[in-house]
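FORM 7B - TANDEM STRUCTURE REPORT

SECTION 1: FIRST PROTEIN
SEQUENCE AND TOKENS:
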Amino acid sequence: MALFDLPLDELREYRSDSTEPEDFDAFWSKTLQEAREHDLDARFEPVETGLSTVRVHDVTFAGFGGHPVKGWLVLPAAAGEPLPLVVEFVGYGGGRGLPHEHLLWASTGRAHFVMDTRGQGSAWGGGGGTADPVGGAPAYPGFMTRGIDAPENYYYRRVFTDAVRAVEAARSHPLTDASRTVALGGSQGGGIALAVGGLVPDLVAVAPDVPFLCDFPRATTLTDRNPYREIGLYLKTHRGRTADALRTLSYFDGVHFAARGRAPALFSAALEDQTCPPSTVFAAFNAWAHEEKAIEVYDFNDHEGGGPYQDRARLDWLRSYA
């Protein structure tokens, strides 16, 4: 696929037309307040992995609604004092997988927490172990339209709340340094990292790669590739619901979380990416509030983005922050 979105010079100036709800901050403040009425109850159970360079804990904590959410905490084997903390969120359809899939960040001497995504983990990778016990109105298969009838019911209200609670859970372990916490992820994981960057005020850095869940008004009309296409197919059946759906989605748009970003950020975009079109990524990048921000651009890549090259870029970049 050749370039299909705006030219790079226009991407660097692009701003989203997504309308921020007037009660955006109140909505999220209330959501997180309700979640914190439940005891975090973070439990860290050592697991035998056969790996000699890391120690792994099977983690369970209370997320949205007090629902149990799983994760892995991977620590360097010799860890004896609090370490910089990397909290990672995974891509659409995936789960936390198996511990040996998560060796990079612990190999740098950091603590690494990987959050399972509720209801997902059955499309690729090593699987997941977190259910989503909340039902909802009729939805198109997938996750993008679950509860799209109202912001209070939307699936990503639960996921983003889980993610904030994941940071709190990871920070509660005695071998993590809460003052040096980084949030990162790719695709859906990048979109979740953006939300965390807007909701957790004291992160030291945020690194969303080819982030999903950004600039819904443009994304849903520019690409016909899933997962965004799930929304269009839902609206193809539920005619006349477009305005209502976009209103719900506006509470979860990475552009609005980016406007509240208080930490340095490293983004990435791929100019042939039809899953998360580059203009939607730049919409969030250009809205990011903290003045220390950079974006890696991969000219001829699709949704794989920079892959290992972006890993290398993040490794170099994070040395300055955690």
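SECTION 2: SECOND PROTEIN
SEQUENCE AND TOKENS:
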Amino acid sequence: MKKRNIAIGTAIACLLLAACGQNTDKETVRVAEVTRSVFYAPFYLAIAEGYFADNGIDIELTTTWGGDKTMTSLLSDGADIALVGSETSIYVASQEAADPAINFAALTQTDGTFLVAREDTGDFQWEDLKGSTFLGQRKGGMPQMVGEYVLKQHDIDPHADLTLLQNIEFANISSSFASGTGDYVQLFEPQASLFEEEGIGTVVASFGTEAKQVPYTSFMAKQSVLDQNADLFVRFSAALYEGQKQIQSQSPEETAKAIEPFFEDTPIAILASSVERYKEQGSYAEDPVLTEEAWAQLLEIMEEAGELPEPIPFSELVNDEISKQGME
């Protein structure tokens, strides 16, 4: 019934605009997101509040479940924009791509995963991971690289001090942990909180608070597409910025209600607590501008993980002018 009411409301709004003689034509923009998470709440909020529609954009959103799949979708023209870890643009550029993926707007600025333990000891210490089985993420992906970076900061060698499992597809990691695989796992929200509610595990630490700011997830498009329609991406950034400002100014409960259609099976209370967790640790970028300092931190994390093919300069893979214009 709720979806029907939303659809009816949208239809009425369109009729009113037409009656006033306004142009309701919008450009459809296909966005491929690497996962569905409250970590991306400012983007969903901007969609729900109509900020993209106000800028003449109709978002067609697809969840592609994994950085490699998301980038493949972008490069093969299956999507116009990819919402994915910035490291993927470096991997593509290192292969001397004729049409590289360019980061043009930032969405998140910290790691978005939480360490979930199967057993709650009540007094977690990082050294507890030694000798455990850790259900890891995809090799070379941001969750895994930041995870390893944080473990090393706590004098833990992720490849020697614990059993690291990396043979499970990204989309299946949470279900594998739920079925009994691993003592610890990295999970995004709201999955981490859902596991707590269901008694499957307990959040004992945040990788977002342990690591420095990093361009963890950004919007990117192929260079040729950016060149052909720069105004479209400026308007996209403007709409995103409105969502970023609103999530900072309103309560987690208000945000949860707005983004509920994106998480049909998740209770409002879980959505609200997930938003609050991310806000408290500063995970949501306050504006869409990706900075050189954050890019440098990304390169450091990739190099520490042994995954940096070459240190590609900020200027080659980031177009910060688009997001700056969008903010204006």
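SECTION 3: OBSERVATIONS ON SECOND PROTEIN
The chain has a mean pLDDT of 91.
The chain has 16 helices and ten strands.

SECTION 4: SIGNATURE
Preparer initials: ____
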